[in-house]
Design a protein that fits this description.
By secondary structure, the protein is mainly α. It has seven helices and four strands. A two-stranded parallel sheet has the order 1-2. The longest helix is centred in the N-terminal third of the chain and has 11 residues. The chain binds a DNA duplex through helix 3, helix 4 and strand 2.
Length: 116
DNA sequence: GGTGTGACAATGG
DNA sequence: GCCATTGCCACAC
């Protein structure tokens, strides 16, 4: 029974990513690396992005638009259906975006390891 | 069980 | 501040 137990949650890692992403405060942004480090997989920052890629398979809405790369670049905007959807959502929260890059990213940066 | 891949991060120029 | 290269882990086939 022990070996079959984990079979129920094959996407445990993804679940964690979604959970942290939902906890991002309004008007704040974070990076994939920060989430990865918070989950204990600092070197799997790419997996965080991939996990969000599968967020469409989730019944719950995930504010993936608040997650950007270390440079504050909206690398995943293309996965929102429309190329401008991500930027629109960020601007809607008061976040200024220029050239697909978050302005004052360091100020708006939200570190789950510290804040959470 | 190996191979390919990905919404990244860190470093150096 | 920007561009190019390398390393990295987890997942699908």
């Amino acid at each position: 029974m022990p070996k079959s137990l984990k079979q129920s949650k094959p996407d445990d890692f993804f679940e964690q990513v979604y959970e942290v992403t939902r906890k991002i405060p309004y008007g704040r942004v974070t990076s994939y690396g920060a989430i990865a480090r918070f989950l204990g997989t600092a070197r799997s920052a790419r997996m965080v992005g991939w996990a969000l890629n599968a967020c469409h398979s989730r019944p719950l809405h995930v504010p993936a638009h608040r997650v950007v790369n270390r440079q504050g670049l909206l690398t995943g905007k293309m996965h929102f259906g429309t190329p401008t959807a991500m930027q629109q959502l960020l601007e809607n929260e008061g976040i200024r975006v220029m050239n697909d890059r978050v302005v004052n990213f360091r100020k708006l940066f939200w570190d789950p390891c510290k804040e959470l």
